Amino acid sequence: MIVILHPNTDENSAAFKKTWGYLSALENIRTQKHIVEGKFQKLTEIYLFGDTAALNKEIIEALPAVERVVRVSQEYRILGRHKDSKRITGFEYNGVRFDQDSLNVFAGLCAVDTKEHVEQMMKALKENEQICTRMGAYKPRTNPYSFQGHGKDCLPYVFELAGKYGIKIIAMEILHENHIQEINEALELTGNPTGVMLQVGTRNTQNFELLKTIGRQNEFPVLLKRGFGITLNESLNAAEYLASEGNAKVIFCLRGMKTSFSEPHRNMVDFSLVPAIKRLTRMPVCIDPSHSVGSREASPDGILDIFHVTAQGVISGANMILVDFHPDPIKALVDGPQALQLKELHRFLEDVRITREAYEKRRNLAKESKTAK
Ligand code: PEP
Ligand code: MN
User: Would you state the pLDDT for residue 73?
Assistant: First the structure.
């Protein structure tokens, strides 16, 4: 059961104290408080776990700080919608808004290799008015002898350069809980010039202990990739692990499914699920066209497959794009064949803008026909 308080309820108010006092004294019920920061208001939601079937909804709704109560009937208790379309989606981090209406592009290096490449990438982002990027420091590799990423050694210069070029958020995969500490130390050392979004890769989607640890911290939002060989339901439950531990600042990322039926693409593009995930949960949905397609092949119309699948996700309402770029793809130590070139950044962003505009027109059309009914 979710108890939603009136917007901007002050925790020191008598109304809050009375409400909290009542709820926390309920027998066989565990309470968890969660603050949801919307675009215009701050909402406090109190989750009740345990024997909630026995609770009287009307009595709780009559408590002074309570706006309404939502009975949770389906899965994904915290991140699910539960037929309540009024609940706020998303969050704000380091001045950037993430919700089911926004669209943010995270173009950057799959793996940090040299400081020069990081600087060239960030300079290009700034020239294109971009404030988010991806930078891999810890890389999960199939082959133990492949480059494993520079790890914590590259963090200070990555963060400093981010500050220099006005980057507000870096999406960065972590493979172990120690990496959170390393990121924190490097941010502190460099004077917090940027923000970090912790990425959980497809190989770790069901690493439940890692998810629990990440969920216990509230400082960094999380980008959770869909598991490459599990059902959508299993991946959404993985996201719920993060929220159940206290961190609901979660973005869900589609990155394609592993099957040979996808050939010649690296993975089976699954961006048709963008609207379904937005219906099932309140999470913003990200697409990763680079790891889905895996190559720079183009169709006869001259448009790269990576551009085409990006458009397919954006025209369905995707809220974030995670995409590999590299100043010199031939020299890239990881995933060079799928990296876009810096000279393609402007065109990529323009393609996204055109497609987003088409999505917004489609959304308005749907709204108009609903009000005309
Ligand atoms: C990545 O984004 O660098 C990555 C390794 O992706 P995935 O976990 O989807 O394979
Ligand atoms: Mn990669």
Answer: 67
Separation CA 220–CA 354 (nearest Å): 31
Q: Distance between CA atoms of 42 and 173, rounded to whole angstroms?
A: 29
CA distances from 270 to 181, 253, 289 (A): 34, 10, 10
pLDDT at 40: 76
Question: 241-259 in b/e burial notation, b at 16+ Cβ within 10 A?
Answer: bbbbbebbbbbbbbbbbee
Q: How far is ligand 1, taken at its centre, from the CA of residue 120, in Å?
A: 22
Does residue 168's CB lie within 6 angstroms of at least one atom of ligand 1?
no
Count of Cβ atoms closer than 10 Å to residue 342 Cβ:
20
Q: For residue 173, which ligand has an atom nearest its CA? A: 1
Tell me the average confidence (pLDDT) per consecutive run of 10 residues in the chain, 373 residues long. 92 95 93 82 88 91 94 84 78 96 98 98 98 98 97 98 98 98 98 98 98 97 98 98 94 98 97 97 97 98 98 98 98 96 98 98 94 77
Closest ligand 1 atom to residue 228 Cα is 9
Q: Mutate which of 291, 293, 325 to test ligand 1's pocket (most atoms within 8 Å of Cβ)?
A: 291
Ligand number, closest to the Cα atom of 294: 2
Atom of ligand 1 nearest to the CA of 322: 2
The minimum-distance atom of ligand 1 relative to the CA of 139 is 5
Structural domains present in the chain: 2-73 (3.30.70.1140), 92-372 (3.20.20.70)
Residue 255 Cα: closest atom of ligand 1: 9
**pLDDT score of 39:** 72
Q: Is residue 201 in contact with ligand 1, taking CB distance under 6 Å?
A: yes
Tell me, yes or no, if the pTM score tops 0.85. Answer: yes
Q: Is the CB of 255 under 6 A from ligand 1?
A: yes
Cβ of 1 below 6 Å from ligand 1: no
The CA distance from 306 to 295, in Å, is 8
